[in-house]
Structure prediction request, 228 residues.
Amino acid sequence: MATDQLSVTFAALADPTRRAMLARLAQGEATVSDLAQPFDLSLPAISKHLKVLQHAGLVSQGRRAQWRPCRIEPAPLKEVAVWMEGYRQFWDESWDRLDAYLEALQTEEGEQGA
Amino acid sequence: MATDQLSVTFAALADPTRRAMLARLAQGEATVSDLAQPFDLSLPAISKHLKVLQHAGLVSQGRRAQWRPCRIEPAPLKEVAVWMEGYRQFWDESWDRLDAYLEALQTEEGEQGA
DNA sequence: ATGCTATTTAGCTAAGTAGTGAATCAGGAG
DNA sequence: CTCCTGATTCACTACTTAGCTAAATAGCAT
Prediction:
């Protein structure tokens, strides 16, 4: 398995359960049981998913009595955003519009030339 | 393994070899051998990585004689970008600045109150 | 037909992942 | 101290992934 940060982050995000947990944490702190509640999974399974998210640095965990409140951490998402930036031309709609625009321009020129 | 599109895409991106192949394809079409060239991997290994990328819809393959020219496909990247949008508040720097700004405001208010 | 180059498929191994239940640790509360 | 709740670790099973070599397929060139 790849161990570079970006690979670990992508791998952590490659699971709908973990993304749902992250979505829940985007709304604020939650305990492990809070996170487990929507799923038909054992607590150990949730704990494991959580560990994957922590290992990726996407989530940090505190302690309050017997609870382990979890928070979302922005750094790895930022790294993904930076990586995505390098491919913006492929996914940004405005680029598609620009592409269509340039194509239209070229067509006009062709018609003028004919 | 999760089979939803986003999970498959993230899983495909969770490998530095595959991301490097994608980076190469971002510069234009390439054959399988072209893609294999920078790596110390057997051709079958590259072919497998390529299949993962194709299965994620990130790459499409044509045929020209005995070559299979590969192209990058934008749709799954777009889906990732859309997903990321939902977390912009966590990774966008301007949010950090806003956060700092609000914090500064609150500190000022506190000092005024004291 | 034969061969040559590009690529894929098959069959295998080693290692990693996702889930389970049982047991254990952490930390109040009676 | 003992019990109860929250959470983790352990030991195990089923499955997937990444790599390899060897063999097969695709398509041009002779």
About this structure: Chain A touches chain B through 30 residues (CB under 8 Å). Residues 1, 15, 41-42, 44-45, 48-49, 52, 63, 65-67 of chain A lie near DNA strand C (CB under 10 Å from a C1'). The mean pLDDT of chain A is 90. Strands of chain A lie at 59-61, 70-72.
